[in-house]
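ESCALATION

Customer reports they have been waiting on this structure for their group meeting. Please prioritize. Original submission:
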Amino acid sequence: MAKRSSRGGAGLWLFLGALALILSVPKEVWIGLSMLGLLGWIGYLVIRFLVTQANTAKPPTPQVPERHEPTLAEIIAKRSPPAPARTPAIPAIPAQSARPSPTDVPPPLPQARSQEAEEFYAVPASPPTRPSSHPLPELPSGFGEGRWVPRGEHVRVADVDLVGGMIYVGSRLKAPTGAVDPCLINSHLAVAKSGDYRQRQMGYWPSYAEASPNERRAYLSWLSEGRSHPDCDIGYVFLFFYGLERRVIVDTHDPAAKADWPAITSELRRLLAIYGDKSNSFKRYAGELLSWIELGQASSGQLYDQPIPDFPRTYELPLYVRLALGQASLARAPLPAHLALAWLRLSPETHLRTAATRCPAEFERLFVQRYREVMGAGLVLPKNRTKLKFTYQAASSGMRGADISMTFGDTPDVTALTAPIKKLAEIANQCTDELGAYSRLVGKDPVAAGGLDGLLLLPASLWPAATQTRLRGLTDQMREGRLSLSLRKLLDTLGAGKGPINRDRVRALARALEGAEIGFEPHVLAGARAPGETDTVVLFAQPMTDALVGTAAHYQTAALTLQLASAMAQADGDFNEREIAHLRTEIDAWSHLTPAERLRLHAHLQWLTGSPPTLAGMKKKLEPLPVSAREALAASMVALAQSDGFVSPEEVKFLEKVYKALGVEPKRVFSDVHAVGAGGAPVSTAQAEKQGFRLDTARIAALQEDTARVSELLSKIFVEEAVAAPPPVAADPDPAPEAPALLGLDESHAALLRLLLSRPEWTRAELADAAADLDLMLDGALEQINDAAFDAFDEPLCEGDDPVSVNTGLLEKIEA
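Update from on-call: job pushed to the front of the queue and completed.
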């Protein structure tokens, strides 16, 4: 009894100890154990379910039917021999028949029968089962390895006819990264019944395999419609571009790939014309691929001597142009005009004005002319230290990270220089100044630009060839460097048509002739009255450097003296050769004038002989003169009246009118005329009117110095009064734009930034050369560029010391 009590107490203590132990276990442990148990139970149920399914999936064992043993009565009834049965012919299985269907079960093999049973009965044969036959289907388009579809070949995918080719179709095509190439059109992937390529659906890295069925349908629709709809989402354009990029960069093992390059080049230019302005990224990637192709197709020799292919203007100068410039620098060869123009147009550091973009053909011709005038044989580029290297940055994600680059030995990269492109920009601004009026007319009325107005606003060097031939004919007719003809005849000779003539058109004609080194009188560009159609004009040889002659105050004074003199000389109705010769001698004696000014005055005098001014018309010009100047001018007119040795009564009357217009007492005419006579007796007014004055010609020569002094005096007066100053020049409505500051950097740091973005990696030595070409300290320049990138995008542009890694992904943001 005591033992039983002892065992019961021990059991109780064990139970309490176990309970205490259980209660001491943390709650988290119990939760974990419960979860393990639950998972175990779920696993058991899953395994049991799978085993049950596997057992039920086994085909049932076929039951062998029991053999029917005939009875004796049946044997006796069939003792008579049965009619022979016809065995049906078994058709031949077609050569292309498919495998028998699993549902077609062949008839069971006949059981072995004894000779005795064969004699007593015959089992009727069942008609043989005809095996079913199915033709093998044709392989679908695109089945198997992906292949390049050449230009012009049609393929069909998802009931869509893809015309034009230049795509990859198939089920397998590995990209250089090892993944499926994103450009591959896999015909086994699902395609929706509808899709709109005008909607923004494609991701940043488009891929046909990863696109949705609707996106695939949209892409196939765009391809089938000729790849030309301007509203297409740029993602589909990039997807097609990936295939062109692969054909050029990856398919180097295919000997036929390079034969496709001309077609690919043509297609790239076509796509750029449609989508280039829609996406700067597409324009840049397509431009780099064009550069790669053009370099691969370039013939041997120096590129700077060859025509420059057409490239889009992108964030950086195309490699082809950079190589051509580098070769010219290396050879110390003068830069041809066509290469200088290509550099100017494609450089991201220049921004051409409206006239250059609105009138590209005229700008190109004028730039070539002015470039040769300024630079002679051409600009010679210095050989800088930065070496040219091209790293192709693929657009396709299938080529991301691939090392695709070209090196060119010691050929320098001239984009590290800023002075040469500045010189070209100065010439371009000069050309756009000359084309400004014509450009505005084209923008306002393109139809009028092809007529008289457009012709007159163009520099003469840009006139049509037939018109320039007629212009040379006029130059040949200039006797002693001058030619007089009516304005209408001049316009007819130039083929300018019958349009109305007004002041603006006459001024435009004079300006255009100046560009052909032909001066025009009257000097309408200095404020002279425009002639009418029937009025006489004078053309004369005038170098371009003398185009501004005739606007100075001292010249205006001399011209006024000539106008008064010509009016005086014609007062008697006979402006004879002797008087004209005297005036020409006067012009040559005016030493305070330049040769170019005297040349124009000779032409002005020839114009005055055919179109003499009236005194009334000149009165307004004379009124601002002070009394002393008017008296000096009156004395000069008296001296001129004596130039032919005889003062006629008509000249005396005209002198009286001149004196009156000048505010000088008219009665002084006779005393002044008598005073300059060589010992002549005083002559009364009545006698003078009757017979005139005969003067000593020796005295006339002495008076020429007085005339020169009068002109010099008047020139000082006109400097203050500016009586006939030319009209003010209007401000240019299209000033030369300044290049936008790249990330707020100055010109030199911006140039270094563009160089950095052209490669994902640089050695420190390469960057040191580039910084030296730009007169920058490398470390300080990199720090300043990184600070600008942090301020704009909150991330650095470059990292590392040697090599320096460049975050080229920022290029997309900078372009935007």
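Sent to customer with the following note: The longest helix spans residues 27-57.
Escalation resolved.
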